[in-house]
Amino acid sequence: MGCMTDHAPSYTRAPGLPLFERPPVTEVSMGVSFEGLKLRVIDLGDLHRRFMSDYPVAEEHPPVPLQIERFGRAAQSGVEFQFLDFPPMPMVVFLAEDRASLIQIQDNRFHCAWRRVEEDTAYPRYEKFREGFLRNIKEFADQIGREDLPVTQAEINYINDIPMDSSLRPDVLASLLPLSDIGQSSGMAPLDASSASTAQHFTFKTKEGVDYARLHIAAELVPAGSDTVRLALTYRGEPSERFPNMSAIEMMMAFLDEGHDQIVRAFAANTTAEAQKGWGRSE
Questions:
Q1: pLDDT tens, 19-49?
Q2: What is the DSSP letter of 163?
């Protein structure tokens, strides 16, 4: 079998999409889950050699459970039994020298991630991160000899750690944090909020009314009682429902691009204008 040569659409930034020069991003990841690959570590062969220049460190970890969006599709009845011919494959992780960038591979999942390991670690723009993900997954597909990967779901995640002060407080917690002043209404001393969190979930539908993706937005104080808000945004779903007439690589990249744009808009909608000014918003 040949390499994964399907044409993947390039990313074009949508008009009016907010752009931040200094976003408070501490972690970003994107990836896909598969069905029926039945990989073994030996199947990855010389994949480490392919990644060596950018990811020289290799580790093995226990596999992580898949995070799956359920959309109420008709499920098969009865009990499903699964017989394994060999032990489950561990999660193989390839890391950059500074451990800021990494690739995670297991028999049902392929993810790439970036994390801010030092305060001055440079955040890669989406276009650059996307380019790396596309290059890496093509290498993976070529190594296992699958031109058309059996992708079932795809997801993109952003985590932002935001210091709390009068100008940087995310709007999503604005209705919760004033509860710290509850003591004043009864003549007591002001109470400090030990924790606060909020979550929003939005489902996206095709023109035919079929659910295909969800956007999850969660905010909480980390650690509990601190002055830092962690704002996490995840877009996850089924690319084949959204882009049914595309090849595997085309539909996954189109889905991830759509997810990125939805996350950026949600981030802008859930943070204050003053904070965005500090982050260098230019759109």
A1: 999 999 999 999 999 987 888 888 888 899 9
A2: E
